[in-house]
Specification:
This protein is 42% helix and 21% strand. It contains eight helices and seven strands. InterPro entries: Cation-dep_OMT (IPR050362), SAM-dependent_MTases_sf (IPR029063), SAM_O-MeTrfase (IPR002935).
Length: 209
């Protein structure tokens, strides 16, 4: 059993610089909860392993996860990020620019993910990261499987949902939707999934067919 001290050690293993600190400060201001440092480092690692040139993200927030992803992607890689809140994306754009990323490295689309994702290119992405409406996670997975190329990876944040997923007494809509997502990923023959106890939990799955 991993102790609380070890989990905290993992969270603090990767130092975050001033640009990430600024993105987190802005997240606090607008009331969004970004991915933690260990989860962000995992995203950067996956983007780097894939040598990702195209990444799609659901849930821009103020740019914390996007900054981690951009730092792992290929130098010519483009991040496409979708969020309902254009104001949040304004903060993310400023964070990305201050961190030295040229405007052509990121495309921010304001709108509902389930409206925007069907307009994105089939098999066009090396990695799809989802941190959106938990109730819609199952629908996001179907869209993500269309978007990610064979050999690419789909990642969902909050896969443990504040310890609620593991508690059978929890039957709220968000918890049930995440449990259904985990079952869906575990039984889909197109996927090789793993559930990582990083931060609030990351579901990562490689598309094999």
């Amino acid at each position: 059993m991993t102790s609380e001290a070890s989990l905290q050690y993992v969270e603090g293993y990767q130092d975050e610089d001033d640009h990430l600190a600024e993105a987190r400060r802005r997240a606090d201001e607008v009331g969004v909860t970004p991915i933690g440092p260990a989860g962000g480092a995992t995203l950067r690692f996956l983007a780097s392993v894939l040598d990702a040139r195209a990444v799609a993200e659901v849930g821009t927030g103020t740019g914390v996860s996007g900054l981690w992803l951009l730092r792992g992607m290929a130098p010519d890689g483009v991040l496409t990020s979708v969020d309902l809140e254009a104001e949040h994306q304004r903060h993310a754009r400023q964070v990305f620019s201050a961190a030295g990323f040229a405007p052509q490295r990121f495309r921010l689309i304001a709108g509902s993910a389930l409206d925007v994702m069907p307009r994105l290119t089939d098999d066009g992405y090396d990695l799809v990261f989802v941190d959106g409406d938990k109730v819609e996670y199952g629908e996001y997975l179907e869209q993500a499987l269309r978007l990610v190329r064979p050999g690419g990876v789909v990642v969902f944040d909050n896969a443990l949902w504040h310890d609620r997923v593991a508690d059978p007494e929890r039957r709220d809509a968000e918890t049930v939707a995440i449990r259904d997502l985990l079952t869906q990923a575990a039984t889909d023959e197109r996927l090789v999934p793993t559930l990582l106890p990083v931060g609030d939990g990351l579901l990562a799955a490689r598309r094999v067919g």
